[in-house]
Amino acid sequence: MPIWLQTAVMLTLSNIFMTFAWYGHLKSLGHKPWYIAALICWGIALFEYLIMVPANRLGYTELSVGQLKIMQEVITLAVFVPFSLLYMQQPLKLDYLWAGLCLLGAVYFIFRS
């Protein structure tokens, strides 16, 4: 499996943990004090970092730091939209499409060289 694909898979998995750590508590822990939510989220974020750090180290063997960052942003949107729709039950907005198109432009410019 190419390094860029291994990196993307690992970043996707870490981003799932990140999204739940950052936003999942809004739905599932809304009745708990903020410090309880923060401790739980830190625990979830630990798993994010245990995957994200090796992913970035692996990816950096063939990709630039800018390419890694843009890859992460694309993955973030790709994970966040289904999370927002399915878990948080937020309405689908056309703004997600526009954001995705902007990211496609970023991908083009950062990977074209």
Give a short synopsis of this structure.
This protein is mainly alpha-helical and 113 residues long. It has one domain.
| Helix percent band | over 70%
Gyration radius, in Å: 16 Å
Strand content: under 5%
The number of helices is 4
Structural classification: mainly alpha
What is the overall silhouette? flat
* Tally of domains: 1
State the total count of DSSP E strands.
0
Mean pLDDT: 94
End-to-end C-alpha gap: 22 Å
The low-confidence parts are: none
Oligomer: single chain
Protein name: DMT family protein
Pfam families: DMT_6
Keywords: Membrane, Transmembrane, Transmembrane helix
Organism: Aquipseudomonas guryensis
Question: Could you please describe the fold and organization of this structure?
Answer:
By secondary structure, the protein is mainly α. It has one domain. Helices cover 82% and strands 0% of the residues. The chain is built from 4 helices and no strands. The chain has helices at 3-28, 34-59, 65-87, 94-111. The longest helix has 26 residues, at 3-28. The chain is flat. It starts with a helix and ends with a helix.
